[in-house]
## 1
Amino acid sequence: MVMRRKEAKDYGTKKMIEGVFKKGDNCLIIEDVVTSGSSILETVEDLTAEGIKCSDVVVFLNREQGGAEYLKHNGVNMHSLLNLTDLMRYLKEEGCIDEKTVNKVSDYLHTTQVDHEALSKSLSKDRLYLSFAERAKIAKNPIAAKLFQIMATKQTTLCLAADLTDSTALLNLAEQAGPHICALKTHIDIVDDFHPNLIKPLREIANRHNFILFEDRKFCDIGKTIELQYSKGIYKISTWAQLVTAHALLGKGVLEVIKKSEGLEKRGVFLLAEASCSGTLIDAKYAKSTMKMAEEYPELVAGIVCQSPMFLNQPGLIQLTPGVQIDNKSDDVDQQYNSPEIVVTEKGCDIAVVGRGITKAADAALAAEKYRKILWDAYLQRIKKNHK
């Protein structure tokens, strides 16, 4: 048996879904009363996000206001032990109520049917079911809006983690994979032969193939230090990286500094709310605080780095999910992998970060195209629910 909480607690297991289960299990949902069916659909979505399959629900009382039809339309079969009309009839037969009350309830049911269109509009605000073209119009951060446009135009949700230590190899990889990606994520400080002259050809490749340069710096320090790391030194990240990553650990000072520092006029930040490595100390409370911080800087924060479907009602933000690989489940250190299909359809991923699955391939371009297609097909499957 499993139980769904209304929200994850900051203590205990800190999970939305409690119980003993494994991915692929089938679950029968049990509910007391159903009116619109929307709360059951929310439960189905949360269970699905954990890899649990749901197709049927048993309810004690169907109020006959359109909930069963709405659930059926969304792929869930409802089985009720009792409906309100029968309940009224039984009560009248036992002398508990009179004919006037029965008619009053019947009239009420006919005049208060669930507005399926209104419920569908509510669903349409969920970022998981909106197209990237639609979300581009909602995004408040200019780089997020540009990313959505690139993703829609190139039909790619692939971010390549180019963790290479040789500058020539980095440029060659960018050229080969460029047509298939929406962003190139770097750790520029690991390039052994780095020279400022590397940036110009890297930017030229990005412009020609229409992808975003993304430095995964994970800023986490006092304001002045971050300012220097971001805009000074040999790397001068603020002059070429349209996107950077940062931790929320030391508070909103990190965003204030990135916002005010010299460099590119248009810039964006991905805040780290969850990690793909085993043994992480990041918990639900930290993730919640990170989201709160992101909401205070909508013009600067492009999205959130996480492993689960968060901020569903904020379609202007992008979920970036690392640790994606077709075959492996983990590496020999601490990285945990998920398949492309799972991160998109179950974990809420908008942009998937793939590294060694491409960089270690015999043909980087072929591997990148393979990931691009799998990820894009999964995205189309996800939004199909809202575009029938």
## 2
Amino acid sequence: MVGGRRIVEPPWNRPLNDVPPLIIRPRETVLLARNFTALLVWYEQALGFKIKARIDELPYANLESAGGVRIGIGSAPPEAAAIDGTVIPQIETDDVSRLLREVHVHGGSVDGPHREPDQGFDFGSFRDPEGNTWWVVDPNGP
């Protein structure tokens, strides 16, 4: 107690054995498209991918090949549209806020967490200290 107030120690100051592990699961790799619809059609026609989910409001789509390869295609934001071949690894966790907090505490930069109200999922992104971008979604994400 300090000045009559109880001090709560932040979770990153506790020994690791006191904190349950943060579960991170693999997700599809995301390709950013300058022309979202044209790239979807190309992957369907050229490589036989099938669209498993599509959200035109974002725009974003999940595709899968006959052999089980999963990719996501999203519309490139203006700053990425001028760069050829933008690929972003994506991971899933039950607690997007906690993952982004851990990244921030350990020197990464974060964007989020955000809530997609129409689709009902939490998401965010982060950059590691070398500038590599990752997307993070909860299990309800597309």
